[in-house]
Amino acid sequence: MSEEVLNTHNAAILLSAANKSHYPQDDLPEIALAGRSNVGKSSFINTLLKRKNLARTSSKPGKTQLLNFYNIDDKLRFVDVPGYGYAKVSKAERAKWGKMIEEYLVTRDNLRAVVSLVDLRHSPTAEDVQMYEFLKYYEIPVIVVATKADKIPRGKWNKHESVIKKKLDFDPQDEFIIFSSETKHGYDQAWDSILSCL
Ligand SMILES: Nc1nc2c(ncn2[C@@H]2O[C@H](COP(=O)(O)OP(=O)(O)OP(=O)(O)O)[C@@H](O)[C@H]2O)c(=O)[nH]1
Ligand SMILES: [Mg+2]
Asked: Where would one find coiled-coil regions in this protein (predicted)?
């Protein structure tokens, strides 16, 4: 369990970066959070760190514009990646976003795994599929977290999981976690998977 390995209370935002020149320069392992805007990336970080508002969450999508690096007990970092798929974003902004994410995912030696968040309620979007394919192509370890599980009855979880896996062409070697930031369902499994990637 996480508490034996890391003091998760000792967590704080370290810096925000738009490009490589701003990334922290050391060799601490990093876990990045990727997913559609509003899927619950920041909430996932807050839940894992048992904090209400360390990573800023909002009901207004498209808020996180930079890569936000969170230091966890000087042993690990979470990197909150701005969400994709927000409609009210210009073509130019979208291209800039793509470059920023790609630069981080492809060149960052510290990166140990990407937590790819999808919404358990819905079939993955084209961009969700694209992100998963991208990670597989670059052989970046990926943990798929299907969140907002509290919003559908437990009896339907399996069916929704199957739909998501099918659409993603999910690799059975990867971890798939049903999660809720509301109920904390999946908390232990999420920490176990993350720690096993370090
Ligand atoms: N019911 C429920 N609501 C959630 C859950 N996770 C996140 N939310 C809500 O969904 C909204 C968006 O959550 P965020 O964590 O800000 O999403 P994000 O992926 O960081 O969004 P961007 O930073 O815009 O990309 C907020 O209103 C959260 O409270 C969950 O597991 N269950
Ligand atoms: Mg966010």
From this structure: none
Look up the pTM and report it. 0.95
Closest Cα to atom 6 of ligand 1 = 40
User: Which three-class secondary structure state does DSSP give residue 44?
Assistant: helix
**Residues 6 or more apart from 189 whose CB is under 8 A from it?**
175, 177
By residue range, what is the domain housing residue 104? 2-196
Give the CATH number, domain containing residue 103. 3.40.50.300
- The DSSP element (H or E) to which 94 belongs, if any, is helix 91-107
Phi, psi for 88 (deg, rounded to 5): -85, 50
Residue 109 contacts residue 57 (beta carbons within 8 Å): no
Asked if residues 23 and 70 have their Cβ atoms less than 8 Å apart, the reply is no
Residues with C-beta less than 6 Å from any ligand 1 atom:
35, 37-43, 57-59, 61-64, 82-83, 147-148, 150-151, 180-182
Q: How many domains does the chain have?
A: 1
Task: Count CA within 13 A, CB hemisphere, residue 47.
Answer: 20
